[in-house]
Write a structure and sequence with these properties.
Structural class: alpha/beta
Distance between the termini: 34 Å
Strand order of the largest sheet: 12-11-10-9-8-7-6-13-14-15-16
Oligomer: single chain
Number of helices: 17
CATH architecture of the largest domain: Alpha-Beta Barrel
Length: 438
């Protein structure tokens, strides 16, 4: 037997340590003699077996030790490929428009005023959904997600007919259907909520701090704030049993304002809260502070997540990494994004320009991929030597396929520039997510 290359030993105190294995996602608390044993310089599987056979059995059972012949890197590679090439699920994103009701300073999209999916592309999108459902015998579920721009703009003329067609097709072919909107929530009125109540629907809706901070960031072109209307629409949707991921964007400068959002959440009835999950996400443009400042920020976000869970609401942070088993849709073979004009992309985190497109949607509902864009994409992930040696490779998977394509020559350095301390913090946060806030 040998120690797994995906073990991490984290020292909690002189008396306690945490052993973590990223492949099995298992933790083992070490105290007393067991803790002392792992601090021994000559520690080896044979030593542990001789000194403490019971501990040795636990280590083997939970993947902290593996057979000498085990190629763990190959196991991770196979896991990534199995999940990302699964045929039982398809996710389709549709951009009804690249226009938006708001103008947020951090948004990476280039808004295109007046852009709108036309009848020809709408019909082609319907045909694509039918072609996908009828042509994939292993398909069990189809996720139809609307993005943009603000996807609730032009709802009745674009999203509604596509959803109606998808509902009929899912019944015809016996395939599960889920509808999702990544929306600012401003246009989520009673008519839309009533229509969407006929199917399985969810939303990601964003708040940018409390009322004051949010209205400084997320406002209409005329300068009017959106906080009150968005929070009212969230309450109405939850009351109908619609699931919402409330994404709370924060920076170090506004993190203290989030306490007002937690007070607002506490006022939501307990029956509605079970449909709500909070996702705390740091705005990526926010510059990092000193180590001490970053640690304080992490503690504050962790405290908010704990408060949410106390209220019966699921909560997560970006640090709760699981990017292999819960692989991003953009990593998967069975994924596409159809833009309002029929251009096709392989990722939502793009400038939806012609230069970045991966293909086009034909009128008969087929995607004409550019060159070998799909195969090149599927080969791009987990090639980096640093990734293949990393102790959290089964959590991270290296980087998303899009980033691997954009950095083709980066074959030796961590894409994320993680230090050992960064990796330890990721593991601490995973422990906190799995055990401390339940």
């Amino acid at each position: 037997m040998k120690f797994s290359q995906y073990n991490s030993l984290l020292y909690v105190s002189d008396e306690k340590s945490l052993l973590y294995n990223a492949m099995t996602d298992k933790f083992l608390a070490l105290t007393g003699n067991n803790n002392s044993l792992f601090k021994t310089a000559a520690i080896s599987p044979a030593t542990i077996k001789d000194v403490n056979p019971e501990l040795f059995g636990q280590l083997c059972e939970n993947g902290f030790m593996v057979e000498d012949s085990t190629d763990e890197t190959a196991l991770v590679e196979n896991l990534i490929e199995t999940i990302d090439n699964s045929d039982d699920f398809f996710q389709l994103h549709i951009n009804p428009t690249l226009d938006c009701t708001c103008r947020c300073w951090y948004c990476y999209e280039t808004h295109l005023k007046g852009s709108r999916m036309g009848p020809t592309t709408i019909e082609a999108a319907k045909r694509f959904i039918e072609n996908t459902m009828s042509g994939n015998p292993d398909l069990k579920s189809f996720d139809l997600s609307f993005f943009g721009g603000e996807p609730l703009m032009y709802f009745n003329s674009v999203a509604r007919p596509i959803i109606s067609s998808a509902i009929a097709l899912s019944g015809k072919y016996g395939i599960g259907l889920h509808i999702h909107f990544t929306t600012n929530g401003y246009l989520l009125n009673d008519e839309i909520l009533e229509f969407l109540s006929q199917t399985d629907v969810s939303y990601q809706i964003t708040l940018d701090g409390n009322r004051e901070q949010h209205n400084r960031t997320r406002f209409l072109p005329n300068g009017k704030g959106t906080f009150d209307r968005i929070t009212s629409n969230i309450t109405k949707a939850l009351a109908r049993g619609h699931r919402i991921v409330l994404r709370i964007n924060y920076t170090a400068s506004i993190v203290d304002s989030l306490k007002d959002i937690m007070r607002l959440v506490e006022c939501i009835g307990s029956e509605s809260r079970k449909y709500l999950r909070i996702d705390f996400q740091r705005v990526w443009q926010d510059p990092k502070g000193s180590d001490e400042e970053e640690e304080t920020l992490r503690e504050k976000i962790s405290a908010y997540a704990s408060e949410a869970k106390r209220l019966g609401i699921g909560a997560s942070t970006r640090a709760c990494m699981d990017a292999v088993r819960s692989s991003c849709y953009g990593n998967r073979r069975n994924y596409a994004l159809i833009n309002y004009n029929g251009d096709v992309f392989s990722c939502t985190a793009r400038d939806f320009s012609e230069a970045n497109r991966a293909g086009t949607l034909s009128e008969d509902g087929n995607i004409e991929w550019t060159g070998n864009s799909i195969e090149n994409r599927m080969k791009a992930r987990f090639r980096n030597s640093a990734c293949r040696k990393c102790r959290i490779a089964p959590l991270c998977g290296g980087a998303c396929r899009q980033r691997c394509i954009e950095e083709p020559d980066n074959l030796t350095e961590c894409y994320h520039r993680y230090s050992d301390k960064d990796i330890d913090n990721i593991i601490y946060d995973r422990f906190d997510y799995m055990f401390m806030n339940t």
